[in-house]
Amino acid sequence: MPGKGKKGKGRAKSRGKKQKKQEVDILTPAAMLNLYYIAHNAADCLHLRGFRWPGDPKAKKGKNKT
């Protein structure tokens, strides 16, 4: 019977080469302006840019359910 089966409409996985992440300069004027609005102090600035303190637990990605 045509039309009764379920067809997946999800995103197909690409099987090509993985794209290399583009290197981003974090000292550009646009990046510094963005940092000015989101960081509250120097330690927060470094934390947001990926420079963690020794012994700092790694943050979990995704939404926190509280």
Describe this entry's structure for a reader.
This protein is mainly α. It has a domain at 25-54. The protein has 2 helices and no strands. It has helices at 29-38, 42-48.
Task: Provide keyphrases for this structure.
single chain; SMKR1; 66 residues; Small lysine rich protein 1; 2 helices; mainly alpha; elongated
Residues in helices, as a percent range: 25-40%
The number of helical segments is 2
Q: Give me the oligomer status.
A: single chain
Average residue-wise pLDDT: 78
In N-to-C order, the SSE pattern is HH
The biggest beta sheet is recorded as:
none
| Broad structural category | mainly alpha
Radius of gyration: 21 Å
The count of DSSP E runs of length 2 or more, i.e. the number of strands, is 0
Which shape, going by the Cα principal axes?
A: elongated
Strand content: under 5%
Distance linking N and C termini: 47 Å
Low-confidence stretches: none
Biased composition (Basic residues): 1-20
Region (Disordered): 1-24
Protein name: Small lysine rich protein 1
Organism: Myotis myotis
Topology:
Elements: H1 29-38, H2 42-48
Organism: Myotis myotis
Region (Disordered): 1-24
Biased composition (Basic residues): 1-20
Outline of the structure:
The protein has 66 residues and is mainly alpha-helical. The protein has helices at 29-38, 42-48.
